[in-house]
Amino acid sequence: MSDDTSNGPAEVPIEPRPKGLFDKLSIVWLVPIAALGGALSVAWQTYADRGPLIHIEFDNGDGIAAEETELRYRDIEVGRVEEVGFSEGLERVRVGVRLDKEFAEYVDDESRFWIVRPEVTASGVTGLDTVLSGVYIEGVWDNTIGPPRTEFEGQSTAPLLGAGETGRAFKLVSPEQLPTARTPILYKGVKVGVVGAAEVTEDGMSVRADAVIYEPFDRLVDSSTRFWDISGFDFSIGANGARLNFTSVASLIQGGVTFETLGSGGTPLAEDAVFELFDSEDAARDDFLVEGEGQAIDVSMVFDQNLNGLSAGAAIELGGLRVGEVISLTGLVDPERFGDNRVRLLVSARINPGRVGLPGDTGPEAFFDYLDERIEGGLRARLTNASILTGGLKVQLVDVVDAEPATLQRDARPYARIPTADPNIADVTATAQGVMQRISDLPIEEVMQSAIDLMDQTTALIGSEGLQAAPDELLATLEAIRQVATSEGVAGLPEQLAGLMTELQATAGQVSTILTELQDGGTPATIIAALEDLAETANRLPALIDSTDGVMASAQEVMGNIDGLVGSADGVMQSADETLGNVDQVLTGADGVVASIRGIADSEEFRALPGQVGALTTQLNDTVAKLDAIVQDLVTRDAVGTLTTALEDLARATEDLPGVIESAGEAADGAVAVVDSANALVEDARGIVSQAGQLPLDELSARVDSLLAAAERLIDQESTRELPGAFNAALTELRETLETLRNGGLIENANATLASARDAADAIADASRNLPALSDDLRRVARQANTTLAGFDPNSVIAREAGNAIRQIQDAAQAIERLARTLERNPNSLIIGR
Amino acid sequence: MEIARKGPSLTARAAGLVACRTCARVWPAGTPRCGRCGAHLQSRDTASLQKVWAWWLAGVMAYIPANLYPMLVTDTLVEHHASTIVGGAVEIAHHGSYGIAAIILIASVLIPMGKFIAIAYLALSARHGSRVRPGRRHHLYEVVEFIGRWSMIDVFVVAILSALVQLSSVAQITPGPAALTFAASVIFTMLSAQSFDSRLIWDRDRADERRPST
Question: Is the ipTM of this complex over 0.85?
C-alpha cells in the first residue's frame, strides 16, 4: 500500500501499534474465566447444599457401608452414610449420615431410625429389595419442624407405626402368651393395627407387647373393648359333632388378634392403655360380663365341704346367668365360730350387680340390701357341677326351699359373707368308673373256659352210646304213658268229677240255708250279750295277769331248763345227721325202686288204676250225696233252734266267768307250783332226749335200706323185665331212623356246628382278654372327652345336649352294670342266651 | 530441512514477505489482504500466546474435576458403581487386564498431561527462547497437534457404552460428570494447541542468531 514496497525489499520498521490493555487481551480469556466461575459456583453450591451430619448408634452394622448405604424416608433417599465407626468403648456401631438439607430440619427428637434388612415371617417377606441393593437405614419422623438433633439411638426393629401412619399405641398383656411380632389386629377381617414383639414383664408373671391401632380405627377401641387371639384353629368334639373353627386361612398361618367393644359408654382409648389378650372370644366375653359395666363387688362364702374342683375363675351363677367369678380360694379354720377345727373352704368372689339386673351404678350397700332380701327368701350359695365330666365346680346362687334362716354378714372378713347350702354334686365319674371296673372285673375268661369245657363235654355226651340209646327208652316210656292216658278209666274221670262238683254245690246251698236260719233265730243278739259279759270279765283280768306274772317267772325258769333240753336235742340232731348219712344209702336203694316203678307204670295193674280212681270218685260222689242227706236231716230236726239254745247257755256260762277267772287266779298260783314241777319234768325230758340220742337209728335206716332192697327185688320181677324187651324192639326202629339221620349228615352238621361254637367261644375268650385294654381305652377316651368338654360353656346348647347325652350314658352304664351283675351271678346265661 | 542444516534459516518475515495462510501466495510484508483469495494477511499473530495460555488454563481447570469425579457410572441390579479415570484403570489392573489399564492411563492421563506440558513449553520458549533447536520444537508442535484428537478415546468409549448398555434397571451405564469435563479439557487443549502460531518458534531463533552477529 505504501510506496516503499514497490521499491524492493527494504527494512520495514515494525512498530507495534500502541494499544490499550483491553485491546491487547484476547477474548479467549473469557473461557477460563467462565470455567473458573462455573467451577467455583458448583463448589459453592455443593457446599451450601450439604445437609448436617447426624450420628445414629446401632447394635450392629451388618451391611452398612460408607458412601453406599442410604437413609430413606418413605423409601426415598434423603441421606447417605458417610462414615461408619464405633461408639466409645466399642459398644455400638456409630453411623454418620449426611442428610439432605431440605429434610434436615424435620429430623428432630422423635425421629426414629432402624436398619431395613430382608425378613421372612409368617405374614410375608419384607425388605426383599435389600437383598440386591444392600441394606438401608429407614427413618421416620413427623412433618413438623422441631429443634435439631444430631445424636440418635437406632432401633433394632421397625417401629409399629411406619412413616405416614398414624395411630394410637397401647399395650397388650397376657398371663400365658402373646402372638408373634407383627401379628395383625383384625377387625371384621380388616387389618386395623399390629402387635409388636412380646417381652416378659419384670416380675415374670406375664408377657407384654406394644400394639397400635391405626387411625381412624382407634375410635373403635375404648375401655369396654376386649381383645382375643384368633390365631390357629379350634377343634372340638361335642354333642353336636366335630367342629373345626378358624377365622381365615391367613390368620391360621400368621395368627391374628381381634377385638370387639362389648359395651357402650366406655372411656376412649388412652395413650399407653393396657388391655388383656384373651385366649378366646368366650373368655373375653366372660371377662366383660364380670368386669364390664358397673362396679364389681367382692363377697365371700364359706363352704363346709372342701371339695375338689372349684378353682379361681369359676363362675358364680344366678338363675343360670353368670354374674361373677371366683377370685380366690383359701382354707379356713375357725374353731370359735364353727365349734370344730375342720378346714372349711373360704371362697372370695366378685359379683357384678349390673349382671344381676340391678342398675349399673349400684353401690355395695344397695347390692347388699338386695342380697339381704333374697337371702331372707332362701337365697343360698351352693357348689354344683360346672362340667359333669371334668368334675369342675361352680357356685350357684339358688333359692333353697326350707333353708335354715341366715343373713348376709356384712362385716365379715375379708368380704361380706353370703350363707351357703349343701352342695349339689353328681359324681358321674365315680359311677362310670365303677361300671368300667365291673366290666373289667368280669370273669369272662373263666366263663369262656367253662363254656369250652361244656362244649367238649356236650360233644362227648352226644357221642356216647348211652345217650344214643336214651331216645329209644324215652320213646317207649312215652308210648306207655300214652296208653294209660287213652284208657277208658281216664276218659271217664272228668264226668265223675263233674258229678262230684254238683253234689258239693248242693251241700253248700244247704249250709247257706242253715246260716240264714241262724240269723233269723236271734242268735246275734245272744252273742252280743255274751260279749258284754266277756268285757266285764276282762276288767277283772288284771288280777289274773298279776298272778300270771308269777307263772311267767316260773315259766322263765322252765325255759332255762328247756335250753338245757335243747342242748341235749343238739346231740340228738347230730345223731340224726349221722342217720341221714345212712339215708343216702337208702336213697341209692330208692333209685332202684324208682327204676322198678317205671316198669310197674307199664304194668296191667297200673293200667287198671284209672278205673279204680274212677270207682273211688264214684264212691266219693255217693259220700257227698250222703252228706247232703245229713245236712237235710239237720235242717228238718231244727238243729238251728238247738244251736240258739246252746248259745244262750253259753251266755249264761260267761256270766259265771268272773268267778271262774278268780278261780283261775287261784289256779295260776297253783300253776306256779305246776311249773316248778314242769322243771322237774323237763329234767326228765332231757334224760329222755339223751336216751333218744342213743336210739339205734342206724339200725333203723339199715332196715329201711333192706326194705327198699326188698322192694327192688319185688319190682324187679321177670314180668317187669320183659317190658324193656318190648321197649327195645320199639326203640330199635327209632335207632334205625337216627342212623339214617346220621348217614344223612345231620350229626356231622351238628358236630361242625359245635366246632364252630367252640371256635366262637375261643374268639370270645380272646376278645374278653382284650377287654381290659378296651376298658383302658375307654377310660382314656373319657379322659380326653373330659378335657374337651372342660372348655365348654356349661350354659350353651352343646352343654345341655351333652348333659342329656351323659344322662343317657348314665342309664346305659347302669344297664351295663345290671348286666354285669347278672353275668357275675349267672355266667352260663352267656351260653344259654338269656 | 537441508537448508536449515546449512545455516540459520531465512524467514519470510526476515525476507520482508508475508504468506497468505489460506492460499499460500506470498505478498510483500505489510500487504493487508491477499490479492488472490482476499484473506486477511498477518505476518505474526500477536495475540497467539495469549490465546494459547487462555485455552490452556481452561483445559487444565477442566482437567481437574475430570479426574476427581467419576467418569463412568455403572448401575446394575446388584450394585451402583462409580469410578474415576484413574480409579477405573487401577481397578482394571487389579482384575489382571494390565494392557487395557495401560491404554486408559496413556490415553486419559499421560497424553493430556503431556500436551499440557508440551504446549506450555512451546509457549514459554516462543517468548523466552530455548536451547532446543526450532526444528525439534516445530516437530513437537506437530506431534501435539496430531495426537490431541486421540485423547478423546476415553470419551468415545464412555459415549458408546452409555448408548449400548441401557437395560433399564438391570444394567445401566451413564457418563459421570468427569466425562463432560474431560471432553471439555481435551477440546480446550486442542484449541490451545491450534491457537499457537508455529511461526513464532522460528522468530526467536532468528533473533538469537542475529544478536551475536550484530
Answer: no
